[in-house]
Design goal:
The chain has about 425 residues and is α/β, with parallel strands linked by helices. Among the domains are: about 55 residues; about 55 residues, TTHA1013/TTHA0281-like (2-Layer Sandwich), CATH 3.30.2390.20; about 80 residues, TTHA1013/TTHA0281-like. Helix content is about 25%, strand content about 25%. The protein is built from 10 helices and 23 strands. The strands form 5 sheets. It has a 6-stranded mixed sheet with strand order 17-16-6-7-19-18. β8 and β9 form a beta hairpin. It starts with 7 loop residues before the first helix and ends with a helix. About 30% of the residues are buried.
């Protein structure tokens, strides 16, 4: 049987009943003498429509007639050309870069984009700025690498000895571990071990035999890499007070300075007892005090003496780095790591690189942005290309948008190519 179609009167009646129910729920009155809910709904709809029209008109007006920001902004960027202008008093000066503009203003201002026509309404000044200033982040600079370092590549050419062929500055994470090497700058020889360098006489027979110098290659190094490694005292045999005198203990512990082998352990006899020493230290001291052997029972009758300071002398025979290949020195505020074999990645050549000459030839860093560093004696910005720029003080550094720094020793940063100093006076000068 076909369904009876719904009539308009039924639809109208249903709507009326729905409104009456809403009216009863909202106003607690089902008589429907008045219908304020319909009036309120119409007002809301009209208001929403007007709001949409106002927003659309604002957007269209902003596109057709951009705001004239040059009238009151301290720093403006011309949308069409990308040129920066900075306000000084009542004039707007073309400025070389964002770093120079922030130096002038003394705050990390962000540029306001304007059209070229906006600048026609203000007085123009002469160009200013530091053309070679680094590119800096407009806001929130990325995290800086944790350490800085110097790397050298040494190799031998045909009919030539091994020499330093390239020197590269770098920034990046601090390598784990470290290597040992014998290095020379042509005037002195140094033992590099545990992140330190110590002068050493490779002709000393006791040191030579104990450390295995007969098979240790001596690597040439440049001044930058050598100065990046902290220096300690010269490598020499530990001092033993009253060496050669009688100790007063039973033999073979009766002579001060003697090395006694006790079950594979090396024991040094002192005036107040005996103390175990590392193998290399024992071999060096045995060259002067002689050796003997004893049992654990005999050692038990000798008091334990305080330890002996062996200074820069390693306790074990190091594994020596070869004379060629890459050698790198990296440092942060806590540790220096000397590593061999890992070449710097993605090296950016410095202008005027001289290869075998004394200058640094390039820069390598995983970061592609300018970073702020503190050497303990000053603050610097290191550009993405590896140029370091001295900054006047921390207040100036913060004004450029870099409130935080990483600590890098000056002995390492000194090898980076130097750029112009970043000061307000320099930024106010004509380029």
């Amino acid at each position: 049987m076909p369904r009876t179609p719904t009539t308009p009167a039924q639809i109208s009646g249903h709507r009326f009943l729905v409104r009456r129910v809403e009216h009863a729920l909202v106003r607690a009155d089902a008589r429907m003498l008045h219908d304020p809910l319909r009036t309120r709904g119409r007002a809301v709809a009209v208001g929403a429509a007007l709001l949409v029209l106002v927003i659309a008109g604002t957007v269209i007006l902003g596109l057709l007639r951009p705001r004239d920001g040059a009238a009151d902004a301290d720093l403006v960027l011309v949308r069409d050309t990308g040129a920066l202008h900075v306000r000084i008093d009542d004039r707007v000066h073309p400025v070389a870069n964002l770093a120079s503009a922030r130096l002038v203003l003394g705050q990390p201002a962000e540029p306001v984009r304007v059209g070229a026509a906006a600048l026609e309404k203000v007085a123009a000044g002469h160009p200013i700025g530091i053309p070679a200033a680094p590119d800096i982040a407009v806001s929130d600079p990325p995290p800086a690498p944790a350490s800085a370092g110097i790397c050298e590549e040494a190799s031998a050419a045909l009919h030539e000895p091994v020499m330093v062929r390239s020197t590269v500055a770098r920034m990046g994470p601090l390598p784990e571990g470290g290597d040992s090497a014998l290095v020379t700058d042509g005037a002195s020889t140094w033992l590099v071990h545990d992140g330190r360098r110590a002068p050493i006489d490779v002709r000393d027979p006791a040191l030579s035999r104990a450390l295995g110098f007969s098979t240790a290659p001596i690597r040439p190094v440049g001044a930058h890499l050598l100065e990046a490694i902290p220096e300690t005292g010269a490598v020499r045999a530990p001092s033993v007070p009253r060496r050669g005198e009688q100790s007063g203990f039973p033999a073979p512990f009766d002579v001060v300075g003697r090395i006694v082998d006790v079950g594979g352990r090396r024991v040094l006899v002192l005036s107040d007892g005996a103390v175990e020493v590392p193998p290399v230290v024992a071999d060096v001291l045995a060259a002067e005090g002689g050796t003997a052997a004893a049992t654990e029972v005999e050692l038990a009758h000798v008091p334990v003496a305080p330890g002996v300071d062996h200074g820069s002398l390693p306790g074990e025979v190091p594994s020596w780095a070869p004379a060629d290949g890459w050698l790198c020195v990296d440092a942060d505020d806590r540790r220096t790591a000397v590593t061999h074999g890992r070449a710097p990645a993605a090296v950016v050549p410095y202008p005027g690189a001289d290869g075998v000459g004394p200058a640094t030839d390039g820069f390598s860093s995983p970061a592609s942005a300018t970073v702020a560093v503190d050497t303990g004696g000053g603050v610097h910005l290191v550009a993405a290309g590896g140029t370091r720029h001295l900054v006047e003080n921390r207040r100036t550094l913060s004004a450029m948008g870099y409130p935080a720094t990483v600590t890098v020793p000056w002995r390492v940063l000194a090898a980076f190519r130097a750029g112009p100093e970043l000061t307000r006076d320099s930024a106010l000068s004509a380029p």
